[in-house]
Every structure is written in structure tokens, then in C-alpha cells.
Known about the structure:
By secondary structure, the chain is of the alpha/beta class. It has twelve helices and 14 strands. The strands form three sheets. An eight-stranded mixed β-sheet has the order 2-9-8-7-6-3-4-5, sandwiched between helices. Helix 4 (98-110) packs parallel to helix 5, helix 4 (98-110) crosses helix 8 and helix 10 packs parallel to helix 12. It is globular and about 65 Å long. Bound molecules: pyridoxal-5'-phosphate (PLP).
Amino acid sequence: MQFSDKIAPLKPSAIREIFKVLGDPSIISLAGGNPAPETFPVKEFQTLSAKLFEENGKNALQYGLTEGYLPLRKKITERLKEKLGIGRDFDETIVVTGGQQGVDLTCKILCNEGDVVLCEDPSFIGALNAFRSYNTRLVGIPVDDCGMQIDKLEQALKKEKKAKLIYTIPTFQNPTGVCMSLERRKALYALAKKYGVIIIEDNPYGELRFHGEEIPTIKSMDEDGIVVYCGSFSKILSPGMRIGFLCAQKEIVSKIIVAKQVNDVHTNLFFQMLTDAYMETYDLDGHIREIRELYRKKCAAMQAAAKQYLPANVSVTSPEGGIFLWCRMPETVDSQKFANRLLRRNVAVVPGMAFSPDDAPSNGMRLNYSMPTEEQIDRAIQQIGEELREILF
Ligand SMILES: Cc1ncc(COP(=O)(O)O)c(C=O)c1O
């Protein structure tokens, strides 16, 4: 079969083997990226959907506007302004089908084949694959405990004449869980402006802070209309609804709307109306506070287990929010092989290579704490510690 040049660069995931076993109940999975299902407001949605069908069923089943359901768009616009200082006169906010679609469409409307996307290394595989599908070239910028390393970003911007986009997840990054410092956010913005590059700020975890001080979003600094902000309800209400949003300057948004028309006409209207009704009727902020508390406890359990069981030459990041932490093993460890060995101990993790813009081997691995119980976290980290001791000493 001759597949298109667009889809050819998307290789089957190197971690497919790991995901195959995830249905097995004897495996403790730290490999997923799902929010904890106990946080889904099932009862509330049940009540609201019955009411919605009773009062507004025919509209909920009709086609809708590509930009999104107006009452929801208004609520999102206000929330972004109020909570994150996002949205100037030149900006517009639209509903998209998950943050993933926001990232994908932004690349689609801005990048030609061969254009360069600068991204964190490691970074979110869904976004990397979206960029790959447009035959762009990915250039990874290493991440440390304060986010993307800005000196390396500047070197790359100097070198890469076809740089078009900087893709960043500055808050509780996937996969490392780290936050970019305010200083670096400002520097990144200044560099993007200097080199005429658009920033995609992907922020699905921003509301899940359980420690420390809020750090302003890059979009809140955007006086020049160079930041495309992608957000989502996936991690604060439900990922299955596929409700995300995007805020950018109007010229960019108008092209994204045309691309979205082609892509899916509009985001599922019923779930847009349901999200709107939820925000109208219930206390979304109160709900988010409960999620944060749950993840704070689970993260603390993972940190404590790491301290207890992992050898001293293995480090883990200390996230202040979100759902992941990153484990750095000694350079001699190939995390792909290590992850396969761990499966024999009934523990699943995602090896670092899966998040590499250039498929480079990695001594890191991503550990998720939103899905497992505290007891499972403890057992899994103990197994990781034992396996590490076996191969290192
Ligand atoms: C960094 C990042 N961006 C975007 C997404 C996609 O989220 P959504 O469900 O809103 O499409 C995810 C999902 O895990 C993510 O981790």
C-alpha cells in the first residue's frame, strides 16, 4: 500500500507493546495519561443531560457553529480573562475538539513542509505526531527542572532559518511534570518576537496546581498576537467529551475556523451544551479543588515511595501540579529495555524515547499518578526500585 507522505513519517508507537498489556488487571499501570475516573461528575452530567434533552433536545441534535456554542464560548472567554489574564481586543476564543485539535490545526494553517517546529525534548507525543503529519521538521530543546532551556532555544533559532513554531507546555509539562519559570517564559516570548516565530502554549494541566505559586501564562504576556493558547476540559471535567478551546489573534483564528470546517464541521454540540450547563449550574472551581487535592495526595505517595525505594543515583522531578513525574536513571540505562523488563514485574511505564522529537534513546521514563491507587503506586515504585538495583548493582 502506498501511503501519503503526510502519514508515512508516523511510525507505529514504540510503546505499543506496553499499551497492549494495559487491559490486564494484574498489571499496575503508571503508563497512562488519563485523569482519575472518580473525578468525573457522572451524577451531575446525568441530571443535566436529562434536562437538556427535555428542554433543548432538538437544538442539541442539530448542526452547530464551527466557532462553538456561543454561551460556552462566552464562559470560556470570561474564565480565561479572569483566571489567567488571557484575551486582548485582537484575540478570539473558539471551541475545538480537545486541545489536540487546537495544536493540530495551528500547525496545519501555519506550516509548510520542511518548516521547523521547535519543541521541548521530551514532549507530548500527540502534538509531535501532529507536527510530523505535516512533514515539518522537529527540533528538540532540552528541558530541565525550570522548563525549556532558553539558551539552547536561542541557539536553535539562530540556526534554523525555517523556524515557524515554538511548541511549549510550560505548566506541569507532559511528560516531565515541570513548570517553566517566569523568567524563562518572558525570555521565550522575547525570543519568539525577535525571530518572528509563533508560540503554541499548550496548557491542559494549568488548573491542576496543588503546591506553590501560580506562574503567569505566556499568553497573558502576548501584546503582539504571537501566542496561540490551547486549553481543555479533558483534565478538569472529562476527556471523553472532547471539549477544548483555543485563544489567538483573530487573523489566525479565522484561518483555523476554515480548517476546522473541513476537519469536523464543529465540536460535538451536545457536549458543548452540557459543559455550558455544568458551568452554569455547578461550582467548577470547587470541583477542580477536589481534583487538585486528590492528585496532591497521589503525587505525594509517589514521591515518598521514590524516596524510600529508588537508588540514590536515580532522581524524580517534584511536580507542583498535573498528573506526571519524570524519573531520570543513570545514563547507562536504556529506558525502553528497562520498561520491557518491568512488564515482567507487572508494572507498566512509558520509556523516554516515546517523547523524543527525534526518537533518541532515553534514560528517562514517565510515571503517571492520577490513575493508580496510592497502594498501587507504592507497590509499583518498589518494583521499579528492585529492578533498578538488579541491573545497576
Ligand atoms: C500536553 C497535552 N496537550 C494536549 C493534550 C490533548 O488533550 P485533549 O484531550 O484536550 O485533546 C494532552 C493530553 O494528554 C496533553 O498531555
